[in-house]
Specification:
single chain; about 475 residues; globular
C-alpha cells in the first residue's frame, strides 16, 4: 500500500483546499459544468421533480398537474409515462402513483427555493418569467444542485483516500477523476441530473467519510455514531438501498462489541445509530402513508422484489446489461477491493466489499434488474466512493510497476470507453435497451468519431434540436 505524506493522515483539516488534488478536481468540475442539461425529461426525473414542486407550490402531494405539464411537453416520448402515472391511480388512496423518494426533493430544496427567490426578484423588475415552479430557473436549480452534490461527494471521497486510505498523490486524484469520468456518474451528473443518483453519491460519500473519520480519530462517542446513523438515514431517504451502506459501520460496531465484551457500550451506540437513521427515514414513511395508504412504497415497486436475488450474477456479468460490460473500470475497482480485503489489516477492505456485495444482492432482487433503456447500470452509481477505493489500489499497484504516463493512459482508455458510450447512447447509434457485441465495440472506434464534432456543436448551440434529431424510433431496428 502506498503511504501518503504525514499531512494527508490523521486528524488534519477537511479538504486542505489549496492542495493540488482538490484544485484539480475543481478544475475538472468547471469543465464539466457546461455539460449539465437543465431539463427534466425522463419518467423518474419527472416523479422526483414533481414531488418537490408539489411540496413547495401546492402542498397537496397530488402530482396530476405536474405529470400533465411534462406530458404536454413531449406526448410521443412520454406515452408510456402517461399510461402508468397519469391514467393509473393507487388502489387504496386514489392518488397518482409515484416511485420517487423524499430525499432528492429535500436536498434540492435550497437550490429550488433560491431559484424561486431569483424569479420573484426578476419579475419585480419587469422580467417576464413565470413563477410557477416549472420555468427554466427551477429545473436548472435542481439539475445544477445534483451536479454540485455529486461533486461534494467526490471531494469527500478524495479526502477519505488521502487521510484514511493513505493513498499518495497523484494516484488519489487520478482515481477519483477516473471513476467520475469513466463510469455512468458523469452521465447522471450532467446529461440526466434530475435522477436521484447524483445526490445519492453525496449521501453515501458522507456516510463513509464520517465512519472512516471516527475510526481514524478513535472517536467512540455517542455523537459520532449519531452522525453516522443520520448519514445512513439520509442515504436511505435518497434511495432506499442506500441504507444498506450502514453495514460497514454496523459490522465494525458488532465486531468491536464482541471482541471487547462491552455489551452496554455496543448496544447503546447501535441504538443511537439506528434511532438517528430511523429519524431521517421517518418522513418517507409518512409520505408513503399519504400516497399508498401503507408504510411501504407503491405495490408496483414491491411486487418486483424477490429477496433471494435471482439475478445476482446477471447484474454483474450479463453481456447486454451487466455492470462489468457497461463499465469495465468497475472490474478493476472490484479487483482492488478484493486486494485490500485480503491484504489490508484495518478491516476497511472487507467492510467496503461487503457494502458492494449487498448492493449487488438488492439489485439482483429486482425484477427490472436490467435497467433496460437507461444509460449504464445506474443503480450502482452511488457506489462511486467505494469504487474509488478499489481503483486507487489498482493505480497504486500500477504506479509501482509502470511509468506514471502509462498508468494515466490506461485510465484514459477507460474514460474514453465511457464517454464514447455516452455519445453512442445520445446519438442513437446503439440499441438503448442493451449492449450488442461486437457492434457496440466497433461503433466506439468507427461510428462515434466521425459524428462527434457535429454532435458537440449541436449540443452547445441547439440542445433540444439534437434531442429531436436523435430521438429513437418506437421500435429499434438493429
Amino acid at each position: 500500500m502506498t503511504t501518503a505524506p504525514a499531512d494527508a493522515r490523521g486528524s488534519g483539516s477537511f479538504l486542505r483546499p489549496w492542495t493540488v488534488g482538490p484544485r484539480l478536481l475543481c478544475l475538472v468540475f468547471l469543465f464539466t459544468l457546461p455539460l449539465v442539461t437543465p431539463t427534466i425529461r425522463g419518467a423518474d426525473e419527472i416523479q422526483y421533480f414533481s414531488l418537490l414542486r408539489s411540496l413547495v407550490f401546492d402542498q397537496d402531494l397530488d402530482f396530476g398537474n405536474e405529470y400533465r405539464h411534462f406530458y404536454a411537453q413531449d406526448p410521443q416520448g412520454l406515452a408510456g409515462f402517461k399510461a402508468t402515472f397519469i391514467d393509473r391511480r393507487e388502489d387504496v388512496t386514489g392518488r397518482h402513483i409515484s416511485f420517487g423518494y423524499l430525499g432528492p426533493a429535500l436536498m434540492w430544496s435550497p437550490f429550488y427555493l433560491a431559484a424561486h427567490g431569483c424569479v420573484l426578484a426578476a419579475r419585480a423588475v419587469g422580467v417576464p418569467i413565470a413563477a410557477d415552479g416549472f420555468a427554466w430557473p427551477y429545473t436548472a436549480a435542481v439539475c445544477y444542485g445534483s451536479a454540485f452534490y455529486a461533486f461534494f461527494g467526490l471531494l469527500l471521497t478524495h479526502n477519505a483516500l488521502r487521510r484514511f486510505g493513505q493513498f499518495a498523490e497523484p494516484g488519489a486524484t487520478w482515481s477519483v477523476i477516473g471513476v467520475w469520468l469513466g463510469t455512468p456518474l458523469l452521465y447522471y451528473m450532467s446529461l440526466a441530473p434530475g435522477f436521484a443518483h447524483a445526490p445519492a453519491v453525496f449521501a453515501v460519500s458522507l456516510l463513509l467519510w464520517l465512519w472512516l473519520r471516527s475510526r481514524d480519530r478513535g472517536d467512540d462517542s455517542v455523537r459520532a455514531w449519531a452522525w453516522i446513523g443520520a448519514a445512513g438515514g439520509l442515504a436511505g431517504l435518497v434511495r432506499p438501498s442506500g441504507v444498506l451502506f450502514l453495514v460497514a459501520p454496523a459490522a465494525e460496531l458488532v465486531w468491536r462489541t464482541l471482541r471487547g465484551r462491552r455489551w452496554a457500550w455496543g448496544l447503546g451506540r447501535a441504538l443511537v445509530m439506528g434511532a438517528c437513521a430511523g429519524a431521517l427515514l421517518f418522513p418517507q414513511l409518512i409520505l408513503n402513508r399519504v400516497l399508498t395508504g401503507g408504510l411501504g412504497p407503491t405495490r408496483l415497486v414491491t411486487r418486483k422484489l424477490t429477496f433471494t436475488s435471482p439475478h445476482f450474477l446477471q447484474v454483474l456479468f450479463d453481456p447486454g446489461h451487466g455492470l462489468f460490460f457497461w463499465t469495465p473500470l468497475v472490474l478493476v475497482a472490484v479487483a482492488g477491493l478484493a486486494a485490500i480485503a485480503f491484504r489490508r489489516k484495518d478491516g476497511v477492505g472487507p467492510l467496503l466489499a461487503a457494502a458492494f456485495l449487498l448492493q449487488v444482492w438488492i439489485n439482483g432482487s429486482v425484477e427490472s434488474w436490467s435497467q433496460a433503456g437507461a444509460f449504464g447500470a445506474r443503480r450502482f452509481v452511488e457506489l462511486t466512493p467505494i469504487f474509488a477505493w478499489g481503483v486507487a489500489v489498482a493505480v497504486a499497484w500500477a504506479a509501482r510497476r509502470l511509468r506514471r504516463l502509462a498508468t494515466a493512459s490506461i485510465l484514459v482508455i477507460f474514460v474514453w470507453w465511457n464517454l464514447s458510450l455516452m455519445a453512442q447512447f445520445g446519438l442513437n447509434l446503439m440499441n438503448r435497451q442493451r449492449l450488442e457485441w461486437p457492434r457496440v465495440a466497433v461503433n466506439q472506434i468507427c461510428a462515434v468519431p466521425p459524428r462527434l464534432a457535429r454532435a458537440v456543436l449541436l449540443f452547445f448551440t441547439d440542445r433540444e434540436g439534437l434531442v429531436r434529431e436523435q430521438r429513437p424510433s418506437p421500435t429499434f431496428e438493429p
